[in-house]
Write a structure and sequence with these properties.
Number of domains: 1
CATH class: Mainly Alpha
Shape: globular
CATH topology: Cytochrome p450
CATH architecture: Orthogonal Bundle
Distance between the termini: 49 Å
Order of helices and strands: HHHHHEEEEHHEE
Strand order of the largest sheet: 1-4
Radius of gyration: 20 Å
Mean pLDDT: 80
Strand content: 5-15%
CATH superfamily: Cytochrome P450
Low-confidence stretches: 1-44
Structural class: mainly alpha
Helix content: 40-55%
Oligomer: single chain
Largest sheet: 2 strands, antiparallel
Length: about 220
């Protein structure tokens, strides 16, 4: 059980209703999670602590770190887009959205089917676990115009699916976007003409992917 799910299940019984909305940022979680709530969770405390550790150390760091590398790689491969970002830092957030659409480090997400559902000629029985290919969805030509084109100036593109959706939408989405935008703005100013200086093999596109290493050189 994830931390968000644990809050939903146990929170109301222990502390009354705990409501989440789109404005709830992950930076509000640690202080609250380390306080009275976890101390009250007697029988399930080890489970929650393990889940919290995984969320903080995997979802909170590795995903953003690997996405920054993936974003830098695709920007290096499109120098005209890097120049745009350097000259127009207000495009940083759009650059984050476009790099996460075009070259996401998270390429899939796991979901459980709640009711029997038929897609095409195949029926997924209730209770089936399915792996959703969000990488392919982010390049769906019926949703995105010219989906293989990398363009940080796309005007109000449809939302990406890299952060998931619905009740399981990534709790740290806003924080990740902010961290990546700030990093790209700083790097675009400090690195002149960055380019790859070696191969950049990616981990398998199953769950968390991204470059295994990324060597960059730039002008000084």
């Amino acid at each position: 059980m994830g931390l968000f799910a644990a809050f939903q299940v146990y929170g109301p019984a222990l502390h009354g209703p705990f409501l989440f909305d789109d404005s709830y940022l992950p930076m509000n979680v640690p202080m609250w999670a380390h306080g009275t709530f976890l101390n009250s969770m007697r029988g399930v405390r080890p489970l929650l602590m393990a889940s919290y550790w995984v969320n903080e150390n995997l979802a909170g760091t590795d995903t953003t770190r690997t996405q920054l590398a993936a974003s830098m790689q695709v920007l290096c491969e499109h120098p005209e887009q890097w120049t745009l970002l350097r000259d127009r830092p207000e495009l940083a957030m759009k650059a984050v959205e476009e790099t996460m659409r075009h070259s996401p480090s998270m390429c899939s997400t796991l979901r459980s089917v709640t009711d029997d559902v038929t897609i095409g000629a195949y029926t997924f029985p209730a209770g089936t676990f399915i792996l959703v290919n969000t990488y392919a969805a982010n390049r769906d030509s019926s949703i995105y115009e010219d989906p293989t084109r990398f363009d940080i100036t796309r005007d109000e593109p449809p939302p990406i699916l890299t952060f998931g959706g619905g009740a399981h939408y990534c709790l740290g989405a806003n924080l990740a976007r902010t961290e990546l935008a700030e990093a790209l703005k700083i790097l675009s100013v400090r690195l002149r003409n960055p380019r790859r200086s070696g191969p950049a093999a990616w981990k398998p596109m199953l769950g968390m992917s991204g470059p295994t290493e990324l060597h960059i050189e730039f002008d000084v």
